[in-house]
Amino acid sequence: MIEGLTIGRYSVPFPVIQGGMGVRISGHRLAGHVALSGGIGIIAAAGLGYGSPSYQGKNFFAADRQGLLDELRQAYEIAPDGVIGVNCMVAVSNYDEVVRTSCEGGAKLIISGAGLPMSLPGLTADYPEVALVPIVSSVKAAELIARKWHKVYNRLPDAVVVEDPDTAGGHLGEKMELIGNGQYDQYATVRGVKTYLKEKWNLEVPVIAAGGVWDRQDLQYALAQGADGVQMGTRFVVTEECDADDAFKQAYLNCTQEDIGLIMSPAGLPGRALGSNVGNIRQHDLDKNLRCPSGCLKKCAYKEGQERFCIVQALDRAQRGDLETGLVFCGSNAWKADRITTVKEVFEELFPLAERDAI
């Protein structure tokens, strides 16, 4: 019998967190239905302003805030009693406001990566019920976060997500040259983080494995290796409830293992994607003489010198179904997708009937 998952004050029947995939791949429909099925649903906060009805071309940050509030409200309409959180990227310019807006909108947990979320407890001080979950790829990163949080805020993580840069999709917290060289051991890192938190702080909180989890066998392996749960993103893209356009989902169905590779994001981080059209993305922005429309990232090679391409708009176009000039992020298992299913069916495969009785 696979046990459920408790993070902070919140418990769910199944140890599954749905990954936060931007822009608007993990929106209210996906997060709401994952929460309804007994997992933790996550809304990706990055770039929501571009899809908000309130966006008028020059009010990105105001629209971004309203878009996040709208996504949370709609997710809770689907799963009023569900556990729904927000993935907040440290790398975005309005990180502080995104975190506070998440709390204001009713997020029960905040998962934060793409940088070390050193200020997260201070930003959520008025919302002590919100669980705080940093993303790391090393024990050292977990140590730095825990020490800073404890010293400055007298707070420690409610859970930790350990992301495997060799398999996870989207932006990755590792240097390009270190990804895929065979040296990274995700589950050694999982166990190392658990040992550190226990020995240093006498803290036993869930440590979640993210990256490379596709089916029940992968889930069982992760739990056997010491993880308390898994974060799954790529598998949920090919569901009816995923907020992406059907063409985006079809890209997963059509791709081969060889189509999946690494790109260097203008955000200064490697990313895993279907990268064969990166030249088209770059040419699109040159042809349109596209300037940085919002300054949405703290650090961006396109904002600073028009290098590479505008990543938030490339992700936005892909979500809307433009696969010629849109960027399709994915995990290493995207090639395994062979049909469109439902969130409910994914959970039924991961957890047999005896375990589904817990809902």
If you consult CATH, what is the topology of the largest domain? TIM Barrel
Name the CATH superfamily assignment of the largest domain. Answer: Aldolase class I
Order of helices and strands: EEEHEHEHEHEHEEHEHEHHEEHHHEHH
CATH class of the largest domain: Alpha Beta
Query: Any guess at the CATH architecture of the largest domain?
Result: Alpha-Beta Barrel
Mean pLDDT, rounded to whole units?
Answer: 94
Task: Name the structural class.
Answer: alpha/beta
Strands side by side in the biggest sheet = 3-11-10-8-7-6-5-4
State the helicity in percent bands: 25-40%
Q: Whole-number radius of gyration?
A: 19 Å
Walk me through what this model shows.
The structure is a single chain. The protein is an alpha/beta fold. The protein folds into two domains: 5-245 and 337-356, Aldolase class I (TIM Barrel); 249-329, no CATH class. Helix content is 36%, strand content 16%. It has helices spanning 28-36, 60-78, 95-104, 120-123, 139-153, 186-201, 216-224, 234-237, 246-254, 278-287, 301-305, 311-319, 343-350, 353-356, and strands at residues 5-7, 10-12, 16-18, 40-44, 83-89, 109-113, 131-136, 160-163, 170-171, 207-210, 229-232, 260-264, 270-274, 328-329. Strands 3-11-10-8-7-6-5-4 form an eight-stranded parallel β-sheet. The two termini are 14 Å apart.
